[in-house]
Amino acid sequence: MIQNTIVFRQMMNLHKLSFGCFGKTLLVFPPDKSIKKYLCDSIYKEMFSKLAYSVFEQSIQDYHQFDNVDQPINNPFPKEKFEHLLYLKNWIDTVQWHFEDIIRDPNIDPVAALTLKRRIDASNQERTDMVEYIDSYFLQKYSHVNAKPEAKINSESPAWAFDRLSILALKIYHMQEEVSRPDASQEHKDKCQEKLNVLLEQRTDLSTAIDDLLADIENGNKFMKVYKQMKMYNDDDLNPVLYQNKK
Question: Tens digit of pLDDT for each residue in 21-32?
């Protein structure tokens, strides 16, 4: 369902208007192509972090309908859409969040804990692979941009910034749960509310930083350079414990 409508009005006939969607937002544009491009670019920059966060929220809500780490993902977005990647990224993060809760159970069976540790390792690798895949999307998206001579590199790639936003969405969801927990003391709720306020402020700051970074890359003021994480502990040829056992 369309939740928002952004309408740019000019003195024109309605049949000359063109329409488009950005997430759940209906966009209505004037017929002038140059104006339309300018408005599209402006809206895209301002709304990208909001779009990502809304997808993260949807993923978290969908997971908690079942609250089961073994629940198969049912990605509602077509594979060719960027939202598909965002949803998958956050689903991995959400499942791993609950892996980390389970493994901290002081009464967990040691054998089950070891099995779960293996799943956490695999999930970590999958999470890293997804971040690199999302950065590949941005590299392709901005491949036409010629960086200015004075352009600087950012210490964090766009995908790792979205990774932080995905984790932040999980923190906010679970902190809100603590604020609303029926069996918790008022003191506990008050402390959690203070923490939630900080997380919400952090969300605003991080979202602004993401949108600014994407705008800087698109305008040639910054350029992307992505390094593979090259995790060694999962590699049979790089982890000494693993490759020594192969002898």
Answer: 544 545 454 555
